[in-house]
Amino acid sequence: MTTIATQDKIRVQNLNLFYGENQALYDIDLSMQAGSITAFIGPSGCGKSTLLRTLNRMNDLIASVKITGEVLVDNQNIYAPDTDVVSLRKRVGMVFQRPNPFPMSIYDNIAYGPRIHGIKRKRDLDEIVEKSLKQAALWEEVKDRLNKSAMGLSGGQQQRLCIARLLAVDPDVLLMDEPTSALDPISTLKVEELTQELKSRYSIIIVTHNMQQAARISDTTAFFLNGVMVEHGETDKLFTNPGDQRTEDYITGRFG
Amino acid sequence: MLNAKLTNKLATVMFWAIGFGILSILAWFLWHILSAGLPHISWNFLTRKPEEMIAGGGIGPQLFNSFYILFLSLLFSIPFGIGAGIWLAEYARKNWFTDLVRLATEMLASVPSIVFGLFGLLVFVTTLHLGYSIIGGALTLSLLNLPVLVRVTEETLRAVPDSYREASLALGATKWQTIRKVLLPSALPGLVTGVTLVAGRALGESAILIFTAGVSVSRFAPDLNLFASGETLSVHLWYVRSEGLVPDATQIAEGTAALLVLVVLILNLLIALPSRLYQRKMAGKSS
Q1: A169 interfacial to chain B (CB closer than 8 Å)
Q2: Which residues form the ABC transporter domain (chain A) (predicted)?
Q3: Is there a domain that residue A148 lies in?
């Protein structure tokens, strides 16, 4: 196992990814610090979601995917053969593009993670449920109907529920795959505010189609094009003074 | 070209007529069976033992055996059927072996039940020396149920959105935790429908049981002995109508038919209603 002394929370080294014969990511090198928000931007099909899903090995679910290179989380290569994928996903959690609450009560949705990780006492679960919902700024809206189905919530509430469900397993890293693309503007704003409150305690990586969103909420931004990472730098700099012509073309709306 | 509005109207009328047609056939059928049979159903009829020569026999043991064999056959077939369905939907890779299993299941599902009956006669009754028995009947019946349960389970699990699987795995759940705590509960209404279907078919099945559970009943009733001969309601209906010597065979057959219909209806309601309520609750519609 390769170990490099570094402060990086996540470090991607020389990563190539193939869907069968088609290469989707080329030689990605990228590092992300704890306590910051990194945004992945780029046109559809550029590989940004694919890269995000390599970080907690969700791509394992697709049989044809082949990966070379390394992804280090806390200096440990998560593609090493002895990796415990279950405990990796507990540390590196994911919020999806479409809110995907389970068809259970609000309470059971939040308690799902803690329960599968062995927490059984009602008092502990109650505490986690309340804390997670408060962190996700949803508690006030749902505290009187915790036993009602989560499917009855609005789309924006469902997405914050999914974030709360993730926080309940106490991860270090939150991966967000276009978390607001299915939400209305007000719900989007709430989720964005939430990321700002959470970033001191978690490392957040967010894939977004929305460049204004990346500019508003992220500390660093990486721009992808056709499976290649064109540029990664401080968000302010990348949007005002990009180092690469292709980045400039994209952020000024010349394509994509 | 015919006027689009007119054809639209005609189509609407036609489909309504088909709907009503189906309903009235069902209503006519129920009316026919129930009006002929219900008058013969009494407490004595439901609890007494059958007679071979004189009038006034009941169907108590048959009623008991019907449920006993149904229960046992579900006990044998549900674990294997649902297990195989889970394997096909969640574990099996796409290759020739999986395709072969699926093909075999589909072929089993289309085998006529009398063939299963003969198979049961050869294997359970004769070779394994179980005789005409409740256990022999239940085992053969579970073979009939198995392919339906496999298919229903596989299809219901496949209908569960992938987003549930992703959400659960992304929270650090294992595959089995995901299946047990998310997929199976989501698939429950479909599974319940499948079990109801199978149970209804098992209650009405006669060809298999004539060959495996026999056409007579134990001297004791109810008799839990697995090796006792166990005639069921459907088999009894066939028996009194074709070979019965009792003078009131017609009345007994009509009563049995009505009882069978009632039992199936009640069973359906008992299983389907709680499932509906559960589904409603989980969809977040009731408040």
Answers
A1: yes
A2: 10-251
A3: no
- Looking at the complex, does the CB of residue B165 fall below 8 Å from at least one CB of chain A? yes
Q: Is A57 helix (H, G, I), strand (E, B) or coil?
A: coil
Q: Do A149 and B283 touch (CB under 8 A)?
A: yes
- In the sheet that A8-19 helps form, which strands lie side by side, from edge to edge? A22-33, A8-19, A65-73, A76-77
Structural domain span for residue B51: 41-286
Residues on chain A touching B282 (C-beta within 8 angstroms)? 103-104, 149, 151
Q: How far apart are CA A145 and CA A161, in angstroms?
A: 13
pLDDT, tens digit (0-9, with 9 covering 90-100), for A73-108: 998 999 998 899 999 999 999 999 999 999 999 999
Q: B89: domain CATH number?
A: 1.10.3720.10
Taking CB atoms and an 8 Å limit, are A102 and B171 in contact across chains? Answer: no
Instruction: Identify from B171, B280, B282, B286 which residue to disrupt to test chain A contact, counting A C-beta atoms within 10 A and taking the largest count.
Output: B171
Could B93 and A63 be called an inter-chain contact, meaning their C-beta atoms sit closer than 8 Å? yes
Q: What is the pLDDT of residues A103-153, one digit of tens each?
A: 999 999 999 999 999 999 999 999 999 999 998 889 999 999 999 999 999
pLDDT, chain B, mean: 90
**Rounded Cα distance, B240 and B255, in Å:** 11
Residue B285 has pLDDT above 80, yes or no: no
Residue B186 in any domain: the answer is yes
DSSP string, B213-260: T-S-B-SSSS---TTS-B--HHHHHHHHHHT---TTHHHHHHHHHHHH
Decide if A100 and B163 are in contact by the 8 Å CB cutoff. yes
Whether A35 maps to a domain, the answer reads yes
ipTM (interface predicted TM): 0.88
Query: In CATH, what number is assigned to the domain containing residue A36?
Result: 3.40.50.300
- Residue A114 pLDDT: 95
pLDDT in tens, A12-41: 999 999 999 999 999 999 999 888 999 999
Is residue A210 domain-resident? yes
A120 lies within 8 A of chain B by CB: no
Residue B29 maps to a domain: no
User: What is the C-alpha separation between B268 and B272, in angstroms, rounded?
Assistant: 6
Packing angle, helices B249-282 and B4-37, rounded to 10? 130
Ramachandran category for residue B129: left, alpha or beta (phi over 0 → left; psi -120 to 50 → alpha): left
Write the DSSP assignment of B131-195 as a string of letters. -S-HHHHHHHHHHHHHHHHHHHHHHHHHHS-HHHHHHHHHTT--HHHHIIIIIHHHHHHHHHHHH
List of chain A residues whose C-beta atoms are within 8 Å of the C-beta of residue B170? 56, 58, 89, 93-94, 96, 166
> What total number of domains does chain A contain?
1
pLDDT for the residue B287: 38
Question: What total of structural domains would you count in chain B?
Answer: 1
